């Protein structure tokens, strides 16, 4: 059956579709800039309306130590798990602008914005501006935006991963480019130890393309030096933390955790891919497409970023024992660019496909971000605001000591309470200060041990059950576990539930 001739409307639209790339080349940088400004502004807004949580508590406490040299000392005693240069960066921001949620999170917000622009430019140079916007929008549909308003180093780690990919694909094979690439990976490792994984896709690509008469590229050699040197220099801090916590680390490597990594990186990927497939079918034309161009080296390396969690799994299984999805945030820029390149190769003659995919991804990302802007407290999971609302009434009822069972809400209360010295962490009945040397399961009291390590440098109070006897009438137990309540009743205490929700508060008699 012969296809029906094009209608007048279709004939009018065809020239417009052919002219779209040239028009987009002028408009797309402006659209990219507007999207980046939107995510930067909204990240700052969320940062201003969200309280610090447990991990961020360690960031600010370590960064605010009396002397910057104490940061090394604290990390040498396993007070936290990130490289010291990140805390120095946060400290520098606080020295310039003062302390607070916005200032501590500003490096993350700025790094996320820079990483978005780098990914856009990387994809734009391989394809065109519209597909550069698609790569940027893929990032906004990942878990990246959350780390743009968190006072941890993951967004900065992502930015250096994006910059490394930009350098590898943008610059020529010169000594200067190699040094630049090595320096970028080096800086990445100074922000997060797992940044050594950024080298994996480039090394795999070089090994795959290697011929006996062909030398390895100078960039790969410089990149290898760039990850090995800082890792070696910081190895005392890495080993200090690993010796104390790797045997009982939470989120240990397993096949189940490996399967969960990719859905965590792209939470809505399956739905979005289904919608994209539908749009591609609806946007098809009867015109015969030219042969699909071969996959370029840049796109191939981008897809090889998917191997990073596999390499990380091996590293965690035989070394670190830590396997978190956020440790592999470096996967995002490569996959985003590769996805955009794949669309461009297969549908470059039909720009309705690219335009529809961009609008779908951009709208989805903006909607998710605006949802958090509307309710910034939705990303707070410990109930700290509920405690701060109850604190005054509890003290009015004669309860001077706020004794917490959960370590996460304790750390937040200890930071935000008007009486931080009266906030106390109750250690579990079966708690031991040092875990067994080898554990087959994650340590259930790892958070308590981290706080104990930090308490060597920042004053915090810890009680055991016997400490409650002298102050029972002045104690309000916040979110006590059932094990704690059972142990208290066995010790002769009478339990009075003051409130069950939104926080469980118990009095002792």
Give the gist of this structure.
By secondary structure, the chain is mainly alpha-helical.
Secondary-structure map:
Layout: H1 8-48, H2 54-63, H3 69-76, H4 84-97, H5 101-126, H6 129-140, H7 144-147, H8 154-170, H9 175-191, H10 200-209, H11 218-233, H12 235-245, H13 255-265, H14 269-282, H15 297-304, H16 308-320, H17 331-347, H18 351-374, H19 384-396, E1 401-404, H20 407-416, E2 423-426, H21 446-454, E3 461-463, E4 475-478, H22 482-490, E5 495-499, E6 505-508
Parallel strand pairs: 1-2, 1-4, 2-3
Antiparallel strand pairs: 4-6, 5-6
Radius of gyration: 26 Å
Give, in spatial order, the strands making up the sheet with the most strands. 3-2-1-4-6-5
Give the helix tally: 22
Low-confidence stretches: 1-19
Mean pLDDT: 88
Largest sheet: 6 strands, mixed
Shape: globular
Approximate strand percentage: under 5%
Architecture overview:
- The structure is a single chain.
- Helix 4 crosses helix 5, helix 5 packs parallel to helix 8 (154-170) and helix 8 (154-170) crosses helix 17.
- This protein has a six-stranded mixed sheet, sandwiched between helices.
- It is 62% helix and 5% strand.
- The longest helix has 41 residues, at 8-48.
- It has helices at 8-48, 54-63, 69-76, 84-97, 101-126, 129-140, 144-147, 154-170, 175-191, 200-209, 218-233, 235-245, 255-265, 269-282, 297-304, 308-320, 331-347, 351-374, 384-396, 407-416, 446-454, 482-490; strands at 401-404, 423-426, 461-463, 475-478, 495-499, 505-508.
- It folds into two domains: 8-379, no CATH class; 384-508, no CATH class.
- The protein is globular, with a radius of gyration of 26 Å.
- By secondary structure, it is mostly helical.
